[in-house]
Design brief:
By secondary structure, the protein is an alpha+beta fold. Helix content is about 35%, strand content about 20%. It has a 5-stranded mixed β-sheet with strand order 2-1-3-4-5. The longest helix is centred in the N-terminal third of the chain and has 22 residues, at about 5-25. It starts with a helix and ends in a 13-residue tail after the last helix.
Length: about 160
């Protein structure tokens, strides 16, 4: 079995479980709940810094990701990248909203690489909510996080 297949199934299983728990309470699943739940699955044995991300695609579907560290540090994967990869693997390519959460003193911001990854699938006005596990949130847009982004327009002459 391809490694991505089990990740996709795991992502689906987490969302189904969360969705059922939330529906039992009569409320719609939120990006916040999805990101907070998947954060617990992060593989962060070296830094102990767990990050969860949830993205909503243009279709309304939620995809989640968590950071996955590797002893060879540059080989790790960010939570946002995992959520975006899950969305793309499901055949979607348009982000509508992003939520990122970590246990830190101020709301966690996507790293530079993840900002570029988000911009690849989002217009500049797509909302990005950054949060702490203590409940503090900061809302912005990908355009504000990555002004002057490199995008497909730069490749017109290629």
């Amino acid at each position: 079995m391809h490694p991505g297949a089990s990740a996709s199934r795991s992502n689906s299983a987490i969302l189904r479980h969360l969705d059922q728990m939330i529906k039992n309470r009569g409320i719609a699943m939120s990006l916040k709940a999805a990101a907070a739940a998947v954060r617990e699955n992060a593989h962060a044995p070296y830094s102990n810094f767990k990050v969860g991300a949830a993205v909503r695609s243009a279709s309304g579907q939620i995809y989640v990701g968590c950071n996955v560290e590797n002893v060879a540090y540059p080989e790790g994967t960010c939570a946002e990248a995992g959520a975006i990869a899950s969305m793309v693997a499901a055949g979607e390519k348009n982000l509508a909203e992003v939520y990122v959460i970590a246990d830190c003193p101020t709301p966690i911001t996507p790293c530079g690489g993840c900002r570029q990854k988000i911009k690849e699938f989002a217009s500049g006005d797509v909302k990005v909510i950054m949060a702490t596990t203590d409940g503090e949130e900061q809302e912005t847009t990908i355009g504000a996080l990555l002004p002057g982004a490199f995008d497909a327009d730069h490749m017109e002459r290629s």
